[in-house]
Amino acid sequence: MASISFPSFSVLFSTFLFLFLHASIVAEGQVPVNETFKVVNEGEFGDYITEYDASYRLIEVDSLFAFPFRLCFYNTTPGEFVLGMRAGLPRDEDLMRWVWDANRNRPVKENATLSFGRDGNLVLAEADGTVAWQTNTANKGVTGIRMMRNGNLVLFDKNGKFVWQSFDHPVDTLLSGMSVRTKLISRTSDSDGRDGKYSLVVDPKGLNFYLNNAGKLVRYNGWGTEQDKTLVSMLFKTEPIDQDPKSAGWELLIEPFYKSTSPPAPQAPRRGLLQSFPIGSGNALILRKLNYNASITYLRLNSDGNVKAYTYFNDVPYLKWSETFAYFSDYYVRECGLPEKCGSLGLCQRGMCIACPTPKGLLGWSETCSPPALKPCSAKGNKVDYFKIDAAEHFLNQDSTGNGEGPTSLEACRDKCTKDCGCKAFVYKQDIKKCLRVPVLGTFIKDTNTSTAYIKYSL
Fold first, then answer.
1. Separation between Cα atoms, residue 431 and residue 324, nearest integer Å
2. Given this model, what pLDDT does residue 314 score?
3. What string of DSSP letters covers 155-183?
4. How far is CA 440 from the centre of its chain?
5. What is the pLDDT of residues 168-227, one digit of tens each?
């Protein structure tokens, strides 16, 4: 008869002790030792091409990966690294995208560390220990960390409740299921990830686009909402049309939530002021309808001030990312409304830059078109004149009323701009006698003969 061996007392005792201690650690709200980590930013870079032509190093921690999302160190400037979330896989034969950044305004150097200790704090630090970014969750009951299937990086407690989540800290991008409660801020450029000059802001009356012009925010478009309600957040989401995840039809949506003592009552945002595409009906604004699964989609405020959505479709052999929405486009809001569509100065028509305005008239447009020089403004006044662009309006003309002062006369409008050091041009709408003073030039739009633009220059 074969003998049966039993574990020794010491093995049983050791196993019991380990389970007891593990349970005690979790009960006390500490991270188990085997789930802590410290990763050093060093070694070879990845071989595949990523968005922004960035170099990257994978963070090889199982809990920080969930198809197709992974944490990495990446950089667009040599020696300056951002802790970022990558979406997409190398085998896709397509650009892997960066959908969340932790420290884009405080990049770290070589040999920086990402550590997750027993106290439950996730910390990004320089090699000398200087903290560049952290979740500030030390001793708050965190027992684990995990990348969720929707791209949400979470730190959770013993009950599974999220103590911290990346979805609460968007930068310039919203993944499906993320809300913007304050604002998104664009990158400066593809090569410079620091805060740029464009922002998408939750205002009490809408989700609005702003351009930072020498420290002053200038609104250039946006989604309006109910006039008698206070907007507190805007949710971006994707849903199957018939509530079946396998459905061939999906919608990209944004849904507003308002300040209320009762549960939030979503209302459909109003039609965009330059919008040419119908928004649909219901509680959310429909950005686009797609014929395939759109669960992995992100909405981004790009460095040029446009908002675009990109959708990942895994069931194709290559080019898995597709642009599925653009705010300034031929199907939504006219492209000519984009502030820098035609650079620092240009005339736009039907999405194309057609002319460079000058005191000598309209010349052929090129990227070298530039505004006229203005002498420093003084209290004594400056000698200035204006050249005009017939049948034109400015990208700040967001609706048919001209967004200006009035009714007033052309002469009074001109005089106000002359005395205003911040005024670079003005647009006068002859039919309704309104005056719009323009603080930044950029793109002018070919329009009807009822609107004329006047650009200031020094004599």
1. 38
2. 84
3. EE-TTS-EEEEGGG--SSEEETT-EESSE
4. 23
5. 999 999 999 999 999 999 999 999 999 999 999 999 888 999 999 988 999 999 988 766
Class of 338-458 per CATH? alpha beta
* Residues in CB range of 67: below 8 A, 6 or more apart: 89, 149
Looking at residue 282, its pLDDT comes to: 52
**Residues 407, 426, 359, 352: is their CA dihedral positive or negative?**
negative
Measured between alpha carbons, how far is 186 from 438 in angstroms, rounded to an integer? Answer: 23
CA distances from 403 to 23, 37, 55, 163, 437 (A): 64, 55, 45, 44, 9
* Dist CA 178 CA 315 (whole Å): 24
Cβ-contact 299, 323 below 8 angstroms = no
Look at residues 425, 428, 437 and name the one whose alpha carbon lies nearest to residue 407. 428
Top CATH class of 27-169 equals mainly beta
CA proximity to 145, closest of 132, 159, 162, 128 = 162
- The pLDDT assigned to 261 comes to 42
Residue 349 has a pLDDT of 94
**Per-residue burial over 235-255, b = 16 or more CB atoms within 10 Å of its CB, e = otherwise:** bbbbbbeeeeeeeeebbbbbb
Q: Which two tokens stand for residue 198?
A: 């464009």
- The DSSP line for 262-325 is SSP---PPPPPTTB-S----SSSEEEEEESS--SSEEEEE-TTS-EEEEEE-TTSSS--EEEEE
Q: Are 54 and 83 in contact (CB under 8 A)?
A: no
In the chain, the amino acid numbered 266 is P
pLDDT confidence bin for 398, thresholds 50/70/90: low
pLDDT in tens, 438-449: 999 999 999 877
> Is residue 281 over pLDDT 80?
no
Per 3-state DSSP, what percentage of the chain is helix, strand, and coil (rounded to 5)?
10, 40, 50
Q: In whole angstroms, how far apart are CA 413 and each of 180, 420, 426, 449, 453?
A: 38, 11, 8, 18, 11
User: In this structure, are residues 402 and 392 in contact, taking their beta carbons and an 8 Å threshold?
Assistant: no
Total Cβ atoms within 10 A of residue 342:
28
Report the pLDDT averaged over residues 233-245. 86
Q: Which residues pair with 326 in a beta bridge?
A: 308
